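Researcher: Batch entry, complex prediction.
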Amino acid sequence: MIDFVQKHLPILIVVLPLLAGLGALFVGRRHQPWMLALATTWTVFGLTIALLTRVLRDGTVEYAIGGWAPPWGIALRVDAVNAFILLIVAGIAAVTTVFARRSIAAEVPDYRWRFFYSAWLLCFTGLLGITITGDAFNLYVLLEISSLSTYTLIALGMGKDRRALTAAFRYLVLGTVGATFILLGIGHLYMMTGTLNMADLAVRLHDLHDNRVVLTAFAFMTVGLGLKVALFPLHMWLPNAYTYAPSVVTAFLAATATKVGAYMAYRFMFTIFGRTFTEGQFTVDIFLITFSCIAIVFASFVAIRQNHIKRLLAYSSVAQIGYIVLGMGLHNPDGLTGSIVHVFNHAITKGGLFLALGAIVYRLGDVTVGEFQGIGRRMPLTAAAIVVGGLSLVGVPLTAGFISKWYLIQGCIESGRWVVAIVVLGGSVLAVVYVWRLVELAYFTAPSQPEVEVREAPLSLLIPTWLLIGATVWFGIDATFTASTARTAAETLLGVIP
Amino acid sequence: MSPLVIALVIPAAGALLIGLAGRWPNLRETVTMVTAGTLFAVVASLAADVLGGGRPTASLVEVVPGIELALAAEPLGMIYALVAGFLWIFNSIYSFGYMRTGNEKKQTRFYICFAIAIGSALGIAFSANLFTLFVFYEVMTFSTFPLVTHKGTPAAVRAGRIYLGILLFTSTCLLLLAIIWTYVATGTVDFKAGGILAGVVTPGVAATLFVLFILGTGKCAVMPFHFWLPNAMVAPTPVSALLHAVAVVKAGVFIALKIAVFVVGVDFIAAHDLGTVLCWMAGATVIIASLVAMTRDNLKALLAYSTVGQLSYIVLAACMGSRLAIEGGAMHIAMHAFGKITLFFCAGAIYVAHHKTEISQMKGIGRTMPVTLFCFAIGSLSIIGLPPFGGAWSKWFLALGALESEHVALLVVFLVSSFLNVAYLMPIVIRAFFVAPDEGTWDKGVQEAPIACLLPIVVTSIGCVALFLFPDLVYSFASRIP
Amino acid sequence: MIVDLPPALLLIAGALVVPFLRGPLRAAWMVGVAVAALVNFVGVEHGTHWQVGVFGYTLELGRVDKLGYLFGLLFHIAALLAVIYSLHVKDTVQQVAALAYAGSAIGAVTAGDWITLFVWWELLALTSVFLVWAGRSEKTYAAGVRYLLVNIASGLLLLAGILFRTNDGGSLSIEPMLLGDTASVLIFLAIGIKCAFPLAHGWVIDAYPRATPTGTVFLSAFTTKAAVYLLARVFPGAEPLIWIGLVMASFPIFYAVIENDLRRVLSYSMINQVGFMVVGIGIGTPLAIDGAVAHAFADVIFKGLLFMAMGAVLMRTGTANGTDLGGLYKSMPWTTGFCLVGAASISAFPLFSAFVTKSMILSAALAEHHYLVWWVLLFASAGVLEHAGIKIPYFAFFAHDSGKRPKEAPWNMLVAMAIGSVLCIVIGSFPSLLYGLLPYEPMLHGHAYTPYDATHVVTQMQLLLFAILAVWWLMKAGIYPPEERKINLDVDRLYRALARGFWWIVTVPLAHLGKAIDSAVLERIPARVVAFAGFAHAEERAHRGWVTGASVLIALILLVGYLLVYYLSG
Amino acid sequence: MHSNDHTPPPNDDGTRHFFDDPVKTRWFFRIFFVLCAVALAFDVLDLIGVGYHKETHLGAEKVPGFYGIYGFAGIVALVIVAKGLRKVVARDEAYDDR
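Model: Structure tokens for the complex:
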């Protein structure tokens, strides 16, 4: 049994949730789908840990589906980069699924629960698949699976607010444009190279790095990926999607969807396009850096004045995505390490924060400024989670956010980009402004409806919230695991490690 | 466990126990006292070790590969640790009197935050590298925020915003940048006697880094980053006393000295005049702060600006590139701490006993609070730097350092500042004792603050004299700074 | 020497006990301390005592040589007199401050190194200022603050000088120095302020008349004389001192003639007398130094005596203004008598103290061919007679009867004045007692200096008697200016004007500037940030209606843009 | 010295103080003038070389009655200059309070 699992570890990670996702429709109507989801996500989480351990120990793991060796068969190829992302996605899924039961019970009518968990698991499958696959076209297919299920998940927020539907629709339109651009990019590449296997693509593109068709593909990919990761100015689908989706969906998406987008970007930019990306006189890095700097500043400013806390954090996500992309743009080991480690750190931070908001929604029905007032006294543990998570967003030492910032600035200084370093640091200061607004609301204002008695959130919500928030502290104090894994991943991407 | 670690664990454990004992004020206060006492005993034993030539180190955790949270004791840090540890004991006693008499709310939170703040002060004092230093620096900022906003009034919230805004802005945008830059340039963040920048980076880069370091340490309150300090005076007086005269602000200037000695290197500074810009800024701060202090009627505001000026003495010590000045600056950490905490204690005692905050209301108050005002006089004279009070010695070394490093203008700054200090501190005492009060005030005879407030005042003012008579208490450490 | 402690500490320790005693016990204690200190000091051995090491410096807490011994003895005597004089005072602050002040002065003249001196120098200022503040009014408060600031400024200059000296590798030991380098100039100026050099003399005439009746007696004894001591020790023979001293000896007499406040007259007189000493030090020959030092000795006592008399008048009548006094000899005969002894002493009548001291300075000036100096000093001597010898006793005790019939001064004041008077006469009549204490053997043209020879007595009497005659004639002729209720502008008012100007600058334009900066940093910049955040927020919201389309459009534009750029650069 | 025109009334016990008694005052001044004359007389003795020799160092000192003249002239000059000074520097007592 263990041997079997060991041998088929990569494919199990995709197959298990896929089967469970289909199965969720049939296992029952009440909490059974949730239990299935719970079991699946935690199992997959365990598998991803095993996979990452193996990758870090033995190097890249290749798996050919059905035994057909690439480039003819479909291959799964796991190196430090995607093993790390897999771990993040599975970990977040595992924790948020715990949270989902009560939260979804409160926000989604019970007859839709099984659809919800089915979509949830399919989305999970899609994200895992995108990350693990070594085949470009497969990637597109899995991207569509995850996107479609995401639209569904967002739309399920309509039980609380009908605007969830428009948000989902907008995401659908823009997501489809993005996916199409990616497909077009892949198509162009196939046209030039005749292969869809990523490793093969990389080899064949090496000498075609200034070929016009390749460049066209590159342009499509840049924009398509930009839409998927929500890089400014292609971020406009994100705020509403995050705001109106069910709370736990927001947490899950914020922590994983854009991160997988970032992974796709890493993979295409560094592994596949390689020279196209890193060479040439007028390369894309300047655009990445410029747009991410604007994202950091502009989105932070927008966040400051938001009155809906979910939307506030959504804009914060847009800014934080700026950090991730910025690290890519620097393309030196420290900057890229910062980017990758921030994928992890931001995932746990934002995941934890949205979960905490979910706990407030659970008690108060919504999270606007009004609900937030005086929450420090009403729900002390939840509020404390928000404070700690907020500090991590700011990048205060002893929180995970600080580690990412440390590497990013190191990267900036190494490449002599002083202005960018200042923007990164200035972004933290702006983060202080919007985070501190929350703190003041929570602790220094009186509740707007003092007559309503509000109790602390139930443990089933608090525990997952604090798992993630605790992780932000843990990985802020002892970041050797995240930092060294991210470093390995970065060096893999940059070709320092084969 | 290394005593260094114990020194950090004690306040942390104290904070926890204080929280648990929160419902029983007497128990809670006992816990605070025991924590403070034990902590000082540990620090004192460390001090003895350091004086004997020991340089204990301890590593806590490797945060990211190559960078760890690590502690090390050395003489400069010992001065700061000893001062903070010693004064915490008496500040605690004072707090009991102040907080209970004033019926302040949320006293448990107050004592918890206090313990954490002191813990972070020790963390700063014992940092073995820039990273650790930065971590504890930020811990201190956040742990003192609830103390500053203790009253929860709109003014307190505003002060809290300014406090965090400036301290976080400077530490994030400047200090952190400088630390990472140093790391990139030298490959290390560890403190090293003689500096880690010397010989590795060009003087131009070193000067820039130096500026970033010092201005980034917003707790130094070098203008224009001083605004947080006067605004933080909205906090209860024990906070102003220990934190904004001793622990927090001294963290800033301690870091300035630490950077000068262990990162940039005094000889490097002297050889290339790396601190010129900073000398100008700090020198201007000294003078301007004194002038502003002259115009304040609110006693705590006046003391705050006085602190701003005095802090820049130590910043100057760090920046002028003279070993004598470094010794003077290190001594001034202790000298100013004792003087200024006395003054804040007195301001608080006046508030507790008579609810007066403005100097113009204190005409003739010496008749009703003779002990308090007498101690205020002693504190003032020590701040001014007159014998026979401790401040005279540190000023001696600072000024001698100014000459040694050929900054005659800074000598003038020190002297003019002393002169201005006389002009704004002495009138307070004199009007209290020698000007007839308005009709109907203070006619109830002697009415001092409670003994818990009075005792610390007396102790710290005796300290001001003791530091003059026995300067080796501090100098034995200062002279061992490498 | 009985107690093996630096002499200064005896009085200081004594002062610290005072607050814990009451009534007669306190009085007995204070006299006891002063007597004990005096007895102890008389027996002190010459040499360096009580060396202490600190920071690698060696401090000499006590160094007693002939010069220091003379001043030490003088200050002990002055302290005892002043303590007796102020026994009736029931003011702890004054009593503690006075003893500590005397102790500081003794510390200053027995200090062997600059750091120790600096400590006592600052303590002189700190302890004495309370004697001004003890007046306990807004006016004395302000005068005290001014006094303190000036004296602190002196201390800071001294500190700067010492620092320069230390930095140049100079010894910390107090030795004679040449006036020239930065250190010496700074030290010179520091001493100059305490010595009431012209333009720096404002604090004397400002604070002394405002101190308490007993306080001024202490004040007059110590600060300026400690400065004279230090000049004699460090700058003997420094030529600028001659000219500075001449100005000091002459300009105050003009002010003294027209000044109404008799204590202020005495303050001018003090500057004038110190001027003689400064000239003597400037001449720098052994005789001149001896003269200066001896004159300081005499001056402390007779000037103290005069201030005591005026203090008694002030205490009994509540005023020391010439316009409000007169005819007091009728009810205060003893005080009148002692005042006349003081007047005779300061005027240098034969058999009175100044006769045997001041003449040394004049003789030394002649011997060194400083003829101009001699002319001016002779004129100043006549001037002394006018304001201190005649004006003080005349307007206070005689003149037109003010109708005031105050009680005679209390017994302790009378005792102190009596002792002072006796000392004045003893010194004047038996000069060898004082001469034996002088740092050098007083010699003139190779012979031991003798003040009492026929020419000296006759010429001096001629000078004094005709000077009196002149005053008589001027009054008779109605030329002599009557006392008026006026104050006279001097540099002290200039300083006050400057201080007011400084205060205005700080509190009006600078304060406004500060406020502007405050509000800019704390209000306007944050407001801008928030405003921009609002702008960005509104911008985002404005897009909401067409956001989907717009996003697609943006995506297309970006695509085209990227394509162009890639093609162009590829 | 100064005019005793407004003679104050005698004390309760009928005695008069020294300077309230014109006779005593007159005698006081007579003695004073005699003393002045005596002091001047010594210079005459010096001139004729009888019993007194004035030791001088400067030419001016040799002038008979030099010290008397210098003292008298000095005081007159002093007072006149001081009167002039008063015109320049005197102010009302309320000057400081303005």
